[in-house]
């Protein structure tokens, strides 16, 4: 890189777009062209979907055995594998994901469904000592109807994270995909109808207003939301009115801290993966590099070279590394933030021969990876989640300064530290305030490990054995075998 100047029908009646009489347009972000139209679900449609889910829960689903739910989830996993190519194609065209990435996400979704198929049969209670004639125990019971509100960066995968967990523990689900990316979820819900009983899994469509209607439904027992911190606050406020529990996986501005004694080649590759993966549209993106001043110039040059080799292109092209951003607004905002940082003194590093972060290709919403070195700490580039392949860089001289820079954010979703010093590994492993901490690695995520955020990155657990805490409620039970004892 070289330095450059800144540069399916929903339930109920549909709310139709008067201009098209077909509903909300769904775009291909690689071309800007309309793929189809999906009508927003109106208030009566949202209420009808929740009623069906609530009826299904009370009439049969809550009383199904864990073994039965486990078997159905394994069928759902099989369906995901059988339909991998079709679902990946929808993710490619609707979310702009390169083919290999999209197929990998469908495969991960199937693994998640299999994991929760097994977790459905794990013990979740305890038996307590009691006197003669009394049995005392705790258990967990499903919350009822779960609302799953899903973002546009991992439409299918994050929907399955929520759906599989909720179903495993005896809940029914109403899922709302992001308005930009409804197609893979719509197809999953259609196909799942052949596996799951009526009303157990249904979908509603639309933007923020549809999400608000869903949160306000009295029969919704909990809301699992992944998205921006601002939207998460709105979800939390609305659910507070009904004392509904929420799980919020929100934004991030995650640091990657690199010391001079690290494996710099491995660290540089991880940094590039961390800020460009999924074209930077990742909540845990390593979007802030905090690098030892002693190796700053050398390391930034390595990162720039690796990032400059990445190919921006059409998602269907096997050679593409970075597809488009999700919308024209996202690309425009990215350019504005980069230009603002440059105007305030940051060194902007773009791929060789490029003078702008924007990339003109086939009318799509493409951007190049950008590195902003020595960025002002009060700039949007340092403080805000950009959701694009933009890396902000700062350097440090001491361990304390490194930790302070890592913590110079309201978010606390993830952090990564690179060092060969065992004492430093332990210190930073304990001290970093983030829900996910990686040491000499970045981005590891497994269906067996529960994850969550701190600070403005939200609360609640996804995946792993602790997901049960969000989708069930604990009870204490006393059973007297000798009444009146």
Termini distance?
81 Å
Strand count, sense and barrel status of the largest sheet are: 8 strands, mixed
Mean of residue pLDDT values: 95
Rg: 24 Å
Q: At the first level of CATH, what is the class of the largest domain?
A: Alpha Beta
Widest β-sheet, arrangement of strands: 1-15-18-19-14-13-21-22
Q: Percent helix among the residues?
A: 25-40%
Can you lay out the helices and strands and say which pair or pack?
Layout: E1 2-3, E2 14-15, E3 24-28, E4 33-38, E5 40-41, H1 43-59, H2 66-82, H3 84-95, H4 99-119, E6 126-128, E7 134-142, E8 145-149, H5 155-168, E9 172-176, H6 183-192, E10 201-203, H7 208-216, E11 220-226, H8 229-241, E12 246-249, E13 255-258, H9 264-276, E14 288-292, H10 296-308, H11 328-343, E15 347-350, E16 358-359, E17 366-367, E18 370-373, H12 380-383, E19 390-396, H13 399-406, E20 411-412, E21 414-418, H14 422-431, E22 436-439, E23 454-455, E24 458-459, H15 468-471, E25 472-480
Parallel strand pairs: 8-9, 8-11, 9-10, 11-12, 13-14, 13-21, 14-19, 18-19, 21-22
Antiparallel strand pairs: 1-15, 2-5, 3-4, 6-7, 7-25, 12-24, 15-18, 16-17, 20-23
Helix pairs in contact: 2-4, 3-4, 3-6, 4-5, 7-8, 9-10
GO molecular function: aldehyde dehydrogenase (NAD+) activity
Family: Belongs to the aldehyde dehydrogenase family.
Domain Aldehyde dehydrogenase: 24-477
């Amino acid at each position: 890189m070289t330095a450059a100047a800144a540069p399916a029908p929903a339930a109920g009646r549909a709310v139709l777009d008067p201009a098209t009489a077909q509903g909300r347009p769904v775009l291909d972000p690689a071309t800007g062209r309309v793929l189809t139209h999906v009508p927003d679900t109106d208030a009566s449609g949202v209420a009808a979907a929740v009623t069906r889910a609530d009826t299904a829960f009370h009439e049969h689903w809550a009383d199904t055995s864990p073994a039965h739910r486990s078997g159905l989830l394994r069928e759902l996993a099989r369906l995901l594998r059988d339909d991998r190519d079709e679902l990946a194609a929808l993710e490619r065209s609707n979310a702009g994901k390169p083919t290999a990435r999209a197929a990998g996400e469908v495969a991960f979704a199937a693994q998640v469904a299999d994991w929760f198929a097994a977790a459905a049969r794990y013990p979740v209670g305890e038996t307590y000592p009691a006197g003669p004639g009394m049995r005392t125990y705790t258990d967990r019971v499903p919350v009822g109807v779960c609302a799953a509100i899903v973002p546009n960066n991992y439409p299918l995968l994050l929907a399955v994270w929520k759906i599989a967990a909720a179903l495993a523990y005896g809940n029914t689900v109403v899922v709302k995909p992001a308005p930009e990316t409804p197609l893979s979820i719509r197809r999953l819900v259609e196909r799942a109808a052949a596996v799951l009983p009526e009303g157990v899994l249904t979908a509603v469509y639309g933007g923020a207003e549809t999400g608000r209607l869903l949160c306000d439904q009295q029969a919704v027992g909990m809301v699992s939301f992944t998205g921006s911190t601002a939207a998460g606050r709105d979800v939390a406020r609305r659910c507070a009115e009904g004392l509904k529990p929420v799980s919020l996986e929100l934004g991030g501005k995650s640091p990657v801290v690199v010391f001079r004694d690290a494996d710099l080649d491995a660290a540089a590759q991880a940094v590039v993966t961390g800020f460009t993966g999924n074209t930077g549209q990742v909540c845990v993106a390593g979007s802030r590099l905090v690098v030892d001043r002693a190796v700053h110039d050398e390391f930034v040059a390595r990162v720039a070279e690796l990032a400059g080799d990445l190919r921006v292109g059409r998602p269907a092209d096997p050679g593409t590394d970075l597809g488009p951003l999700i919308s024209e607004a996202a690309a425009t905002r990215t350019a504005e933030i980069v230009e603002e940082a440059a105007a305030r003194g940051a060194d902007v590093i773009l791929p060789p021969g490029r003078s702008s972060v924007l990339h003109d290709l086939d009318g799509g919403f493409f951007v190049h990876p950008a590195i902003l070195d020595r960025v002002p700490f009060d700039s949007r580039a340092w403080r805000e989640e950009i959701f694009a392949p933009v890396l902000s860089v700062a350097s440090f001289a001491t361990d304390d300064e490194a930790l302070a820079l890592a913590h110079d954010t309201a978010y606390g979703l993830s952090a990564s530290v690179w060092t060969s010093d065992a004492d430093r590994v332990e210190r930073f492993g304990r001290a970093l305030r983030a829900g996910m901490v990686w040491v000499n690695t970045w981005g590891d995520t497994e269906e067996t490990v529960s994850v969550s955020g701190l600070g403005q990155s939200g609360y609640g657990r996804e995946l792993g054995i602790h997901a049960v805490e969000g989708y069930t409620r604990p009870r204490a039970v006393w059973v007297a075998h000798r009444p009146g004892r």
